[in-house]
User: Fold these one by one.
Assistant:
Number 1:
Amino acid sequence: MLTTDPFDGLDVNGDKLREECGIFGVSGSDSAAALVALGLHALQHRGQEAAGITSFDERSFHTHRAMGHVAGNFDRDDVIRALPGDVAMGHVRYSTTGEAVLRNVQPLYAELVSGGFAIAHNGNISNAQRLRKELIRRGSIFQSTSDTETIIHLVATSSYRTLLDRFIDALKQVEGAYSLIVMTPEGMIACRDPLGIRPLVMGRLNGAVIFASETVALDVVGATFERAVQPGELVIVQGEEVRSIRPFAPMSPRACIFEWVYFSRPDSIVDDRSIYDVRKRIGAELAVEAPVEADLVIPVPDSGVPAAIGYAQASGIPFELGIIRSHYVGRTFIQPGDGVRHLGVKLKHNANRALIKGKRVVLIDDSIVRGTTSLKIVQMMRDAGASEVHMRIASPPTRHSCFYGVDTPERAKLLAAKHDVGGMTDFIHADSLAFVSIDGLYKALGEGERRKIRPKHCDACFTGDYPTTLTDQDEAADVDQFALLAERVN
Ligand code: SF4
């Protein structure tokens, strides 16, 4: 029996962890804002709720921010012409911290004693609430509910003299994950937190310096990849001068492992490794760890495709496109009237019935979050006549929430936090379910079994091993405990 609304539209990407943001910056190009718009297009998968671009033309800052996709907001000549200057940066957003309103859309901008200051942030500051309360107590007036604004106030109130020193002073007070691009009248600064949790790369285009969340955005604007911005590094661009400083105590990097599993586009390169290749290797590991007798390997589109190819190649079971995705159903699709609303379910994804009928299928997906999508897809396979439906997942069970800039449901809503694999199998009504192990995931990355190495990645949503303190979470938990105690005493 389906436990979810069967008339709910099936969007296989609707039950995923969602990367919160993508950032892109250009310094030294006459077409800076236009390049940023193109770069943001390439990063659209990292945030679809809102987008913004800020430029600087040696006199003033110019900003355009809007709710919705990059296309539709930044594909008009008049919008780009209103963003003059040879330095520009942009941001695509999906909110987890702060409401989905225009005042939270980045880049954020403020007039400081040193002049204009614009900032774009990918990540999440895990002590933002504590800092915010303290700043407000000292007189700061916040304009947004975004955690990123905390950095602006820390810079504004720092006792250091130069803007750079103020910025470093601010960063030393924040904990959590941040890849940042900052624009001031002096130039552009790009940086990553000391653990390098969120990605940031650097490239060149005809002398211009480009920063982007992923290499795919460099490809799209025709830039050459130069290198990753290193964890704890600040790259400072002033005119043609580019210099690097590392003001933090060195730490062992812990880049987000979920970038490999799902967030990054498969055509991006991270640490000299292709995301696509690693995902295929995860699928191959999964085939070794969780074999099954079946007739077809079917990916859940699009994110399950590379792992399904790897599973099929390693198992010898044919890879087939058993679920077809329509590329013509946009977010703006108007739901038909009640009488035929259930038909809308199949508009975006539909089973390839002729292929599936009477077959034992292995469905490959990248992850299970709430499990509601897996339930529907298994049902879709059964409705199309599959004789057996086996689900294989190219990541370990997602048992913990992310506090580093990824939208995760609260822990109680994660299927793997509520059930063991047997219970999850029952929930999604599959004949079998298996996940790649955490060791298998690290092996696919070419890094050996996790228990035998010092992990180079944050994998907290699988292991609960958070690489930073989580001040706001800990304080919220303390408040809850106190409330519970007070309730008991009363
Ligand atoms: Fe990535 Fe998970 Fe760590 Fe968040 S908790 S940074 S999603 S690995």
Note: The domain at 18-253 is CATH 3.60.20.10 (Glutamine Phosphoribosylpyrophosphate, subunit 1, domain 1).
Number 2:
Amino acid sequence: MKTYNIACIPGDGIGQEVIPAGQTVLAALAAKSTEFRFDFHSFDWGGDYYRRHGVMMPADGLDALRPMDAILFGSAGDPDIPDHITLWGLRLKICQGFDQYANVRPTRILPGIDAPLKRCTPAQLDWVIVRENSEGEYAGVGGRAHQGHPIEVATDVSMMTRVGVQRIMRYAFKLAQSRPRKLLTVVTKSNAQRHAMVMWDEIAKEISAEFPDVHWDKELVDACTARMVNRPASLDTVVATNLHADILSDLAAALAGSLGIAPTGNIDPERRYPSMFEPIHGSAFDIMGQGLANPIGTFWSCVMLLEHIGLTAPAKQLMQAIEAVTADPQLHTRDLGGPAGTAQVTEAVCQQLHNK
Ligand code: IPM
Ligand code: MG
């Protein structure tokens, strides 16, 4: 029996509700198997930890995570702590520390979900957004001078490296190649940003030569938002910079029905470090502690986690269980207009797994 060590970092807000729900579902999967089991290792890092210790996670936190097979992360964000501190002190520290340079965000309209694009059937919206996750607009390069004076200046420099762009392009082309349509859209803004984005385009073209069977096109990020709404079926795999993909992936999640469903993986494709999986919805303080949070984003993230560690068949089982549950509107949480709570959805998914 193989044991997988999974780090669980609920973090803040509804992360503390959805991550235990994710563990329950993973444990239910393992209970049916004689081949694998999970050891969960919980870390209480986040806003409360910051109030006690003055940091979001301990200085040697990455060392504790390093031996894990994967990380399940809830969210970081606290109404009383500036957002850039919670983000840079925990989530980005792990993403950048473990060089999880590929952020992968699948979007589909799951059965039973009422999505806003009435002209589009669920089969026509099946996207994966690949987000550059290590540099670009999130490089953290910049500064402030003359603080508080009229001449104050502040910069955030978007920094792109040839290696950084090459590796994310290669990852995206490879992913596109593995999907039935072999279709990749490279999102850019090289009309206005005439240095880094021009290099981004050039490198896309260079890497495309390694993947002659992948059809690819280029789209400006602003035009891409309109295309997602007007011609969703014309997209399949999409690669974009850190900030562009951040914005496009929220639009994608909303077009698929709710931010509460959307999953993500922060992946180190070279497997030097553990990868980290999380729902993209954030801490949602307005509904925390009430049992209202939609756990589906976490469950789908668990599917990605299972695929990443090589448990392909259990990943498929879990996805089928999720889809059986979303198909029933009585099992929808409030964000989807339904009456169910976190616990009820979790139980329903476990029940589906049990029946299989
Ligand atoms: C996301 C989130 C984060 C980001 C926030 C919490 C800083 O919006 O994962 O998309 O912008 O990276
Ligand atoms: Mg975002």
Note: The chain has two domains: 1-100+273-356, 116-140+156-255.
